[in-house]
Amino acid sequence: MADTHDPRPEGPSVPEGNVWSVGQLNAEIGSVLDAAQDRLPSYVVGEVSDINRYDFGTFFDLRDLDDDATISCIMWAHQREAVTHELEEGTETIVRATVDFYHDDGRTQLAVKNFWPVGESDRSEDLAALRAELAEDGLLDEAAAQPLPEYPRHIGVVTSLAGSARRDLEEAVRARHPGVPITVCGATVQGEAAVASLVTAVRRLEQDSAIDVIVVTRGGGADADLWCFNEEPVVRAIADCATPTVVAVGHEDDETLAEAVADHRSMTPTDAGVAVAPDLASVRQRVADIEHRVDRAYTSVVTDRVATLTQRLDAGLQTLEQRAQAREATRQRIADIEHRITVAYEALVTSRLTAIETQLNDAYQALEHAVETDAVTVRAAQRRVGGLESRIDTAYQTRVDRELGALEARIEDGYREIETDARVQAGQSEARRLRVAVIVLLVVLGLTLLALAVGVL
């Protein structure tokens, strides 16, 4: 029975002698390289990049000065310590090395024994010149960086659609802010087409008014792979964005110019996702804590205010009660005073009327007495006249017959005199009665006016 698990593809048969295993291939490559060591150079020149230092040795890449070709290098620690000059990125360097091939992973690298810096490459000089120009334009000033939106409404991302950077960033954002929309604008992030692709993608997202933060990112790589993020068109496109920008190219040792002009730099796509997306769980927890603190503060404040208002209301009620009692006492005192005034007024009027009545009675009695006295006086005068007439008659009878004519004349004169005197006395009595009546009327009028004045008051 045929083996159903045969990994070889179906199709035309392949001669047995032309199928090698990976191990066989790697062994043959190793043998060829070993046999050709005398044909390989001992010295190689290139630009140093992507240095990684460890206790056991230093790894770095040597990039061709004319194109993007690179080869990995390693220099063991004991050899590195014997060299006095520094290994610097961006420096054109000559290395003395042998070509090593690692059979297990099919990797070729240079085992460096020594190196000599011969000067900076043209690319490094161009980078320094562009950095100086950007600094002069103020684009490297950290104070000019825009703050990232605390709660973005829409996130724009420039990265490779096929790379893991997109997935890492989206996972980081979704874990923190699940509802925020993300628009990914695909771009080439290395190679000759990278510059135009990155510039186009950045400008497209910048023109979208709905996007309020732009992330430009890719995974890590060698300096040669990341060089497009040092190209002036890419750097200027990011620097010209009015929308806040975040650049994360996964390169820890050196900062690209794109990162330098961005508003925020992150180390990895995941870090960029954390930078642009708020942690809603933490926000909700803080909001809950704030609400709890507000509730407690509100309850405390309300309780205190209610207690204070209750005390003020109680005090106000007591004050109102006291004022009401005071007003009632005042009203009672006023009523008492009114009663006393009424009683006093009635007593005073009664007393005054009684006095006036007494005065009137006394005046009337005095008037009657005066009238009676005048009448008595008239009657006495009449009696005197009568007696005088009797005496005259007697004298006339006894003595004055001779002188009758003369005496009668005298008597008649005397009678007239007496009569005139009586009339004068009667007129005087009548005048006194009139004066008494006028006085009484004036007294009554004065009392009436006094009573009216007291009533008005």
UniProtKB/TrEMBL annotation:
Its EC number is 3.1.11.6. The keyword Membrane applies. It is an enzyme of class 3 (hydrolase). One of its GO terms (cellular component) is exodeoxyribonuclease VII complex. GO terms for biological process: DNA catabolic process. GO terms for molecular function: exodeoxyribonuclease VII activity; nucleic acid binding. Residues 20-114 form the OB-fold nucleic acid binding domain. InterPro entries: Exonuc_VII_L (IPR003753), Exonuc_VII_lsu_C (IPR020579), OB-fold_nuc-bd_dom (IPR025824). Keywords: Cytoplasm, Exonuclease, Hydrolase, Membrane, Nuclease, Transmembrane, Transmembrane helix. Residues 139-409 form the Exonuclease VII large subunit C-terminal domain. The chain crosses the membrane at residues 436-456. PANTHER family: EXODEOXYRIBONUCLEASE 7 LARGE SUBUNIT. This is Exodeoxyribonuclease VII large subunit.
